[in-house]
Amino acid sequence: MLLFFFNDTATTEIYTLSLHDALPIYAFYCYYGGELRAVRDRRWKLHLPHEYRTLAGKPPGHGGIAVPYSHTKIELELFDLQNDIGETANVAAEHPEIVARLEKFAELARQDLGDKLTNRQGENIRPPGRLKQTQKQAKKQNPSSTTHAEESSLGVEVEPAFGHLKFRLPVVLTHANDDTDRLWIASQLGVIHVLENHDDVEETKVFLDIEDKVFYNSNENEEGFLGLTFHPNYRQNGELFVYYTAQENPHTSVLSRFRISADDPDQVDRASEEELLRIHQPYWNHNGGTIEFGPDGYLYIALGDGGWFGDPHENSQNLETLLGKILRIDVDRQDGPLPYAIPKDNPFVGKGPGNIREEIWAYGLRNVWRFSFDRKTGQCWAADVGQNTWEEINLIRRGGNYGWNLREGRHRFPIGESDGGSGP
């Protein structure tokens, strides 16, 4: 959920929430001075009853004397931003089911964040319209209280690392398990740095630079160089794998193999690139990004649902596309024309009818940005980015269906729809 908050001194006009080209792709709660005044879900925006002050239609003041504000009341209003970005036609009467759904969204906000309009505090005892209570406010309300971190006794502290170094948009920090005590940091722009693993290191070496091959746009910032991993036998074969958005082809994700230079262990042979997968995506967002070798030696790849909002092409539940899935492939062998092999125990090998993609290990995922394997148990843990309300941490199983876009977490998607679709 993307939340917009405006404080009591805000001067920003809050009644037109537009993005770039005014295409509604996100959900918003719109607060002003702690009051929940509007809710938006994709194309629909619901104004909740409230009063605001305005100078609209008034002549300017003269001689330094300000014109007094007038006050205007807003009743319940629903606007279709896809066809009426200027919010001129109230269509609440024509779409009572949409109004009911957005009112449920509003009630979730009141329960969680509070709302001065309805005199709601919020479940976490925090100021209406604020994400969290400050430590100062908590102490004022209960001087004997301690913070959650103080109570937890987790034994975890945050410390700065590599204070002499700066990176542009770092997205991956990893190692090669090669007993050299080196670390690799990859930038979303397409540069991998290698460095010695000690706090006082003052410089890095450029391990691989493919910035000219990687597409990145700061206004559409879910593309770029997103994944890096090293072969389990890197010390012997010098192979590493990368996942990035191709410069020459819009919204296309590439999985490639590179090999280390024969002359320099701190540099990749750029000419060694071998493309394993090329996946077209309909939109710029939801690209996944993690690639990791599992304890079984196979390469696992997280792919998002292709983007936009709510998986409009229903990719995640479609076994004939790789989008919205975690894949599992064998990079040490080849199957026919493929530059990799499909493990025989993948869950959809030999299944039909249709053109089911046998690379699929798990599906029904929205946008797994990061996953990891437990070093002791081998269990795969995946963090799947939520849509409106729920974030997920999933235990990835062979052939598992994690529900998207029929469910968000354990809950029906979208909220207020009829009780259809699969269980959690």
Characterize the structure shown.
This protein is mainly beta and 424 residues long. It has four helices and 24 strands. The protein has helices at 96-113, 135-141, 148-152, 234-237; strands at residues 4-6, 27-32, 35-41, 44-47, 50-54, 70-74, 77-80, 170-174, 182-187, 191-196, 205-209, 225-230, 239-245, 252-260, 268-280, 291-293, 299-303, 325-329, 360-363, 368-373, 380-384, 392-396, 407-408, 411-412.
What's the short version?
The protein is mainly beta.
Draw up the topology in text.
Blueprint: E1 4-6, E2 27-32, E3 35-41, E4 44-47, E5 50-54, E6 70-74, E7 77-80, H1 96-113, H2 135-141, H3 148-152, E8 170-174, E9 182-187, E10 191-196, E11 205-209, E12 225-230, H4 234-237, E13 239-245, E14 252-260, E15 268-280, E16 291-293, E17 299-303, E18 325-329, E19 360-363, E20 368-373, E21 380-384, E22 392-396, E23 407-408, E24 411-412
Parallel strand pairs: 1-2
Antiparallel strand pairs: 2-3, 3-4, 4-7, 5-6, 8-9, 9-10, 10-11, 12-13, 13-14, 14-15, 16-17, 17-18, 18-19, 20-21, 21-22, 23-24
Classification by helices and strands: mainly beta
Number-wise, the strands total: 24
Strand order of the largest sheet: 1-2-3-4-7
| Gross morphology | globular
Kindly state the mean pLDDT as a whole number? 83
Largest sheet: 5 strands, mixed
Q: Could you list the spans in which at least 5 consecutive residues all have pLDDT below 50?
A: 1-25, 128-137, 144-152, 418-424
Percent strand: 25-35%
Q: In angstroms, what separates the terminal alpha carbons?
A: 20 Å
C-alpha Rg (nearest Å): 26 Å
**Tally of individual helices:** 4
What series of H and E elements makes up the topology?
Answer: EEEEEEEHHHEEEEEHEEEEEEEEEEEE
Q: Helical amount among residues, as a percent range?
A: under 10%
